[in-house]
Amino acid sequence: MWPFRARVERLKPVRSRTYGQRHGVVQTFARASLFTIAWAAGIIGAAFSDVLPLGASERPVKIIALGDSLTAGLGLATEQTFPARLAQALQQNGLMVEVANAGVSGDTASDGASRLDWSVPDGTDAVILELGANDALRGIDPKVTRTAFERMLRRLAERHVAVLLAGMRAPRNMGTTYIEAFDAIFPELESAFGVLLYPFFLDGVATERGLNQPDGLHPTAAGIDVIVARMLPKVQELVARARTARGPRAPNPG
């Protein structure tokens, strides 16, 4: 059960119940500047995550967390966001990674598909795809949402980028037909594309008042820690897949 009841207006989004509002110039600036400088300058680890020291024979696995405000960390400090806390957890488990935050508040799956190529720069090894919450809250046709995910997954497969799909569930008051059609998107995509699936990004958090901010939609820092702990085994599997796809690195000549 979700802790809220969303009003469904298919032609008019309900702005008061959404995973991140769009804020005009700020939204545009966020999209335009997200990766232009950070990755090219080699400072993406400092900007978005904790990065392990490089070993002698391999480089860190570069992960992009592509999502909406649940990834962006609306209402949280930078170090409390999902990508930052995930990077720390992976580090504590001895994995060399860089985790970049490509969350944009208010994004739907279609928005994510539109910005995929510049949000996932060359050199990316893996993507955690967290979108769909705003689609469900706005009552967007599940066929539209599915098509957007298919576009993203086909493109990432073409680029040989490993994917962990973070599933979402429709609010339970949306009606049986909508709920069944929306909730089926993620396991069906897992089967069709062979990607990893974490069934519900907000698992263990969505119904817990103490783990959500006052809006009832966005996790607190403690809620993010619950998400990270529960998702960590799947992310470790994602890292392993990315390394396998990349292959062994040739030793440095010397």
Give an overview of the whole structure.
There is one protein chain. 41% of the residues lie in helices and 11% in strands. By secondary structure, it is of the alpha/beta class. It has a 5-stranded parallel sheet with strand order 2-1-3-4-5, with helices on both faces. Helix 4 (82-92) packs across helix 11 and helix 8 packs parallel to helix 10 (185-193). The radius of gyration is 18 Å and the shape is globular. It starts with 24 loop residues before the first helix and ends in an 8-residue tail after the last helix. The model is unreliable at 1-16, 23-30, 35-57 and 249-254 (pLDDT under 50).
Main-sheet strand order equals: 2-1-3-4-5
Strand pairing plus helix content: what structural class? alpha/beta
What average pLDDT do the residues reach? 83
Total DSSP E strands: 5
The end-to-end span amounts to 60 Å
- Return residue spans where pLDDT drops below 50 for at least 5 consecutive residues: 1-16, 23-30, 35-57, 249-254
Main beta-sheet strand count, sense and barrel state: 5 strands, parallel
Task: Tell me the number of helical segments per DSSP (H or I, 4 or more residues long).
Answer: 11
Gross morphology is globular
Instruction: Report the sheet-strand fraction.
Output: 5-15%
| Rg | 18 Å
What is the H/E order?
HHEHHEHHEHHEHHEH
Helix content: 40-55%
